[in-house]
């Protein structure tokens, strides 16, 4: 079930599910790109519906679907799912993948074309291309990079249609860009700080990125986007007021907004961590 601003909740079938997002079959008017949506996932393997927030990252119109011989609809990337939701989604995605024939050796030119179209329809960002969560562990990122590279190299080496080599090569170019962005903690820190991906930043810091490099990345980020510093200060002030008033939900929202603007601020991260420890049920 999908709920978006200005739209009544609607039940929509999911064509593809990964740990990082899903592709939904839909025709007619689609939620705008970058729109925030609320999802309730149902499946016989789930003990209860899984509630998760998402962001629309890709459209496939009816015309594009006809040209690419795939399903029309839109792709959604999950946004900071809870640990419980993340675990349930990961287990279901793994189960569905086990029950689906491997895409690396499709049986027909049409199947290869559909697989390439599905990859092309994923969002432009590296997480969407790799179908991993924004806070994925480095091991999961490396495995996704390796698996997708092997698959695309196999298609390029044994094409089943004239356009397959070119399309696989273009996707390999996007894959190289994804590796450049996420392949090392230092590079991923810069990427995730720019996009305000708090989970990814936390992974990089936990991986041992030196404090001096974190500070250098922060200086570069704020030099390029000076308005972020003021936005972070404004949100931190709101967070402190909400915290003193006992409004834990508003405080959490403001802390997260502050860190989305300036995710490498060590004082803001420490303040949010202290708040998190004092209000675990918020």
Detailed description of the structure:
The chain has 282 residues and is an alpha+beta fold. Helix content is 56%, strand content 12%. The protein is built from 12 helices and 6 strands. The protein has helices at 62-68, 83-98, 109-120, 126-130, 138-157, 164-182, 185-195, 198-206, 211-224, 227-244, 248-261, 266-278, and strands at residues 2-4, 14-17, 21-25, 36-41, 50-60, 73-78. A 6-stranded antiparallel beta sheet has the order 1-4-5-6-3-2. Strand 2 (14-17) and strand 3 (21-25) form a beta hairpin. Helix 3 (109-120) packs parallel to helix 6 (164-182) and helix 10 (227-244) runs antiparallel to helix 11 (248-261). It is globular and about 60 Å long. The two termini are 25 Å apart. Mean pLDDT is 88; it is low at 103-107.
Walk me through the topology:
Layout: E1 2-4, E2 14-17, E3 21-25, E4 36-41, E5 50-60, H1 62-68, E6 73-78, H2 83-98, H3 109-120, H4 126-130, H5 138-157, H6 164-182, H7 185-195, H8 198-206, H9 211-224, H10 227-244, H11 248-261, H12 266-278
Antiparallel strand pairs: 1-4, 2-3, 3-6, 4-5, 5-6
Helix pairs in contact: 3-6, 5-6, 7-8, 7-9, 10-11, 11-12
Write a compact overview of the structure shown.
By secondary structure, the protein is of the alpha+beta class. It contains twelve helices and six strands. Helices cover 56% and strands 12% of the residues.
Helix content: 55-70%
Per DSSP E runs of 2 or more residues, the count of β-strands stands at 6
Can you list the strand order of the major beta sheet?
A: 1-4-5-6-3-2
**Unreliable segments (pLDDT under 50, ≥5 consecutive)?**
103-107
Distance between the termini: 25 Å
* Computed Rg: 20 Å
Shape: globular
Alpha-beta content class: alpha+beta
Biggest sheet features? 6 strands, antiparallel
Number of helical elements: 12
Order of helices and strands: EEEEEHEHHHHHHHHHHH
Strand content: 5-15%
Give the overall pLDDT as a whole number.
88
């Amino acid at each position: 079930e999908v709920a978006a601003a200005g739209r009544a909740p609607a039940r929509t079938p999911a064509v593809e599910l990964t740990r990082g997002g899903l592709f939904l079959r839909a025709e007619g008017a689609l939620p705008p790109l970058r729109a925030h949506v609320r999802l309730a996932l149902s499946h016989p393997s789930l003990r209860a519906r899984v509630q998760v927030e998402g962001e629309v990252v890709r459209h496939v119109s009816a015309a594009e679907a006809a040209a690419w011989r795939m399903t029309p609809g839109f792709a959604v990337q999950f946004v900071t799912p809870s640990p419980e939701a993340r675990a349930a989604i990961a287990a279901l995605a793994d189960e569905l993948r086990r029950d689906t024939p491997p895409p690396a050796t499709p049986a027909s030119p049409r199947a290869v074309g559909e697989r390439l179209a599905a990859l092309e329809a994923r969002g432009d960002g590296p997480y969407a291309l790799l179908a991993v969560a924004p806070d994925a562990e480095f091991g999961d990122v490396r495995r996704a990079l390796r698996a997708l590279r092997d698959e695309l190299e196999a298609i390029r080496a044994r094409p089943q249609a004239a356009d397959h080599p070119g399309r696989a090569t273009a996707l390999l170019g996007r894959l190289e860009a994804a590796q450049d962005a996420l392949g090392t903690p230092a590079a991923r820190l810069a990427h995730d700080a720019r996009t305000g991906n708090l989970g990814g930043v936390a992974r990089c810091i936990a991986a041992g990125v030196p404090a001096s490099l974190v500070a250098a990345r922060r200086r570069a980020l704020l030099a390029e986007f000076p308005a972020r510093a003021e936005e972070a200060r404004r949100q931190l002030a709101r967070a402190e007021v909400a915290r003193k008033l006992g409004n834990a939900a508003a405080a959490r929202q403001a802390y997260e907004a502050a860190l989305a603007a300036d995710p490498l601020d060590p004082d803001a991260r420490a303040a949010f961590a202290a708040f998190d420890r004092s209000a675990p049920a918020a």
